[in-house]
Amino acid sequence: MKLPVSHLVPGMRLSRPVYGQRGQMLLNRGVELTSSYIKGMREHSVLAVSVETIPSGMGFSGQDAELVLEESIRARAMASIQSWVETNRKQDGFASVVESVTMIVDEIVKGKVPSGGLAEISATDAYTFAHSIDVCAFSVYMGIHYGYKKDSLMVLGIGSVLHDLGKTKVAPEILNKPGRLTDEEYGQVKNHPAWGYEMLIEDASVSVSGEALEIVLNHHERYDGGGYPKGLRGDEISNMAGICALSDVYNAMTTERVYRSAFPPNEAYEMILTYGDREIKYDLVRLFSTSVHPYPVDTLVLLSTGKVGCVMRTNRNLPFRPVVEVLGKGEIIDLSEELSVVIERALVPDEAQAAYLGLADGYMM
Q1: Looking at the structure, do residues 48 and 168 belong to the same domain, yes or no?
Q2: Domain count for the chain
Q3: What's the mean pLDDT in 186-202?
Q4: What is the DSSP letter of 47?
Q5: Cβ neighbour number for residue 316 with a 10 Å cutoff
Q6: Strands, E, within the chain: which ranges?
Q7: What is the span of the domain harbouring residue 99?
Q8: pLDDT bracket for residue 362 (50, 70, 90)
Q9: pLDDT tens-digit readout, 267-287
């Protein structure tokens, strides 16, 4: 389960590694958290981490859990794009970015599932780079369900990983501002698609396809014409740009930020379902609804029985009815078969922390 750093307590154990702003590993999977580790993560501006759902020795089976895309692959990709940008976008550095995107595409083609977000467990100063990797992974995952072949997946992946390149020209204090942006500040943010596009076409040492460039330029355009920078509408926006837009919005919504808490994945999912032929082309929203899931793996959920469960696997055809394991019981329930049980909601951080501590004390809510 993912928890904000503010909700961590000593004794919790990491279920996934924690990375810093350079893509370096700060703490590895399996490390038991201490007060000093938690303090260190705060000092490194880490906002949230993934911890084991069950305290050590409580008997969580984890059997048949879905295979998720490794954070190590995403962290390597994040370091590649950050290094490329900070060395003034040298050609040899871009080759490393392409290699990283290739690894992400290959792993997802093999069946790995993007779950959670590297942006959520990365230092705030590196958010733009970590978010770009997560958007790339989600876009490629949706692209596979759309039917794209390897060459098209690479175009989609390259365009998506570069979609926020222009934000490197926006002041960090604007990107991380806790309060409302002024009109002038928002104007700078709205310039980032055009800035990224210009940075790429003016750089003779980097070769990016026209389709990938269109993703960079148009990922904030909206189906009803209400987007930017050009106010395109309808089919003037490519499907690849639309897929990237969906990934961008979903990852941003579900990521912990300095100026707001993350939305639970199911709430973000349901909000995006309302976007059809308004914000995003309806067919792409439908694609999102069948490829991304409202309750990702490791989400803690309250069941209609009053018990708490942890999502182990998703059911693509019935996204609101995954396979869960009841905490403290070792009981596996496939909600696509056990129709008398439903998910009432995902647990908020306070409730997730309480469930964890309750198990540690031998009590189940």
Answers
A1: no
A2: 3
A3: 96
A4: -
A5: 10
A6: 2-4, 18-19, 25-27, 48-50, 300-303, 308-313, 323-326, 332-334, 343-346
A7: 71-291
A8: low
A9: 999 999 999 999 999 999 999
